Inverse folding.
């Protein structure tokens, strides 16, 4: 009898193992061959649900039922055509205007009917178009006026006075402010690696090489951009709430071990400035948090469930969490059609959709008003999520892990009902990380730690400039130009939200 019970138990264990393996196989199939986004069906009794697009767009979108969606698409498509016409005209009006007159010939002035000469009455605009002027390089010769005094002869010599002139960024070099700004914006904004840029520059006749560009970008960054980076870091550390995440990055000098960019970003709504900050480290250890924001930081960090974000190491810190990360485990399970817990996972996603939809549509003018609306409208919907998952009986496999993860992060998540500045998700910092992954894909790695630190500084300045709606190349060129004027540079005058910077370079 005992052997029979043992065999039955072993059989049950093997069935459980087989079920978990099937679950893994189904998930791998979805990763390899399935759609690259999660889309949950809409209940016909529900007017709108959260459509999970964060893997593609890293932002919440609301999906309406079929009738409303079709109507909305039709209306948007109809108005977008009109909007584009006005938008194109507005853009063309901002460009430098070049008139190309197509004059009537003498033959054209003869009337085709009566054959008499016609009177010229003017011109009209037949069409307008954008014309591209191909990139070119030219040499600027800085000529300085010089004067000689015929009355003063100190020490028997002539007294000469010359006008002031800008000093080069790098003496006896091809790298001017505009060239360096173009190289940086091409690589870090447009993700064009240096070896491709080399061919482009050489086609223009400028003999730049990959090695010289890399060396100059690193030197230029430490000389001219590090003060801005340090100031942005100090400003971010004054924020009450910040987003934080980390992403791997390959550095050859680290001998094959994993290195990381730690990314931070200010929240939306009640922050002082819009800042994105990147920090290079050769470790993912939680100690890096203290290196970035200091051990005395007493604000709140919005993060995922990674164990490095720990109050044991940083007792003064408060940690919030991201509902999108909690949702993701249920979304992965919802893709597996054969799994028993799939239907439960879909129900959780629908309930979470109500949370996102309600949060997104809150209307408020102050933190106090937002907090009151959250507690009144959002909290009951989030309570429904946790009430549902705690009542699921005997969850197994991935469903059990997803539920346990949600319960583990519940206290952190519910802090949004005590602090209105805490966001519901960590998507903004992931949006800032996304461009860096494209650069990493095209450039693969950094050779040295100085190169990786340079990447972090430039990512910081470019992503912060984008958040403040600046034209990247023009802004970088302006920054570099300030260091050619032979006067002390004030970092306050170079920050992306400076009024003069905004006036000159706002998109």
């Amino acid at each position: 009898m005992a052997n029979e019970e043992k065999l039955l138990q072993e059989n049950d264990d093997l069935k459980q193992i087989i079920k978990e393996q099937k679950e893994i196989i189904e998930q791998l199939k979805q990763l390899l061959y399935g759609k690259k986004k999660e889309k949950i069906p809409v209940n016909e009794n529900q007017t709108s649900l959260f459509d999970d697009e964060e893997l593609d767009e890293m932002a919440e979108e609301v999906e309406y039922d079929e009738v409303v969606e079709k109507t909305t698409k039709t209306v948007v498509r109809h108005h977008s055509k009109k909007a584009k016409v006005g938008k194109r005209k507005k853009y063309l009006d901002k460009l430098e205007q070049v008139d190309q007159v197509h004059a009537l010939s003498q033959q054209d002035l003869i009337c085709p009917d009566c054959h008499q000469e016609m009177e010229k009455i003017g011109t009209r605009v037949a069409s307008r178009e954008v014309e591209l002027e191909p990139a070119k390089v030219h040499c600027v010769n800085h000529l300085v006026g010089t004067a000689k005094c015929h009355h003063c002869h100190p020490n028997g010599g002539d007294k000469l006075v010359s006008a002031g002139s800008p000093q080069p960024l790098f003496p006896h070099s091809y790298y001017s402010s505009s060239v360096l700004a173009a190289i940086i914006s091409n690589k870090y904004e447009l993700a064009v690696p240096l070896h491709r840029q080399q061919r482009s520059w050489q086609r223009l006749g400028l003999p730049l090489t990959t090695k010289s560009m890399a060396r100059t970008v690193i030197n230029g960054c430490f000389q001219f951009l590090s003060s801005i980076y340090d100031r942005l870091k100090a400003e971010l550390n004054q924020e009450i709430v910040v987003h934080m995440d980390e992403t791997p990055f390959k550095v050859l000098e680290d001998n094959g071990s994993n290195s990381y960019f730690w990314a931070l970003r200010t929240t939306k709504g009640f922050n002082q400035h819009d800042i994105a900050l990147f920090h290079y480290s050769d470790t993912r250890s939680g100690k890096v948090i203290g290196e970035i924001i200091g051990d005395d930081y007493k604000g709140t960090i919005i993060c995922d469930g990674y164990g490095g974000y720990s109050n044991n190491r940083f007792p003064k810190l408060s940690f919030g969490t991201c509902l999108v990360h909690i949702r993701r485990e249920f979304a992965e399970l919802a893709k597996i059609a054969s799994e028993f817990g799939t239907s439960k996972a879909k129900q959780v996603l629908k309930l979470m959709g109500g949370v996102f939809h309600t949060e997104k549509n809150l209307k408020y003018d102050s933190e106090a008003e937002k907090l009151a609306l959250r507690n009144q409208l959002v909290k009951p919907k989030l309570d429904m999520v946790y009430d549902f998952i705690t009542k699921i009986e005997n969850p197994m496999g991935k469903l059990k892990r997803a539920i346990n993860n949600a319960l583990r992060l519940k206290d952190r998540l519910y802090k949004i009902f005590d602090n209105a500045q805490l966001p519901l998700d960590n998507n903004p910092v992931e949006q800032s990380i996304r461009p860096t992954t494209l650069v990493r894909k095209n450039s693969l790695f950094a050779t040295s730690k100085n190169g990786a630190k340079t990447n972090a500084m430039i990512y910081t300045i470019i992503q912060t400039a984008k958040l403040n709606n600046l034209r990247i190349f023009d802004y970088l060129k302006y920054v570099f130009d300030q260091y050619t004027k032979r006067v002390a540079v004030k970092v306050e005058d170079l920050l992306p939200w400076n009024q003069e910077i905004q006036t000159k370079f706002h998109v």
Summary: Strands lie at 48-51, 61-64, 146-149, 159-162, 241-249, 259-266, 276-281, 300-303, 318-321. Residues 323-425 form one domain. Confidence is low (pLDDT under 50) at residues 37-81.
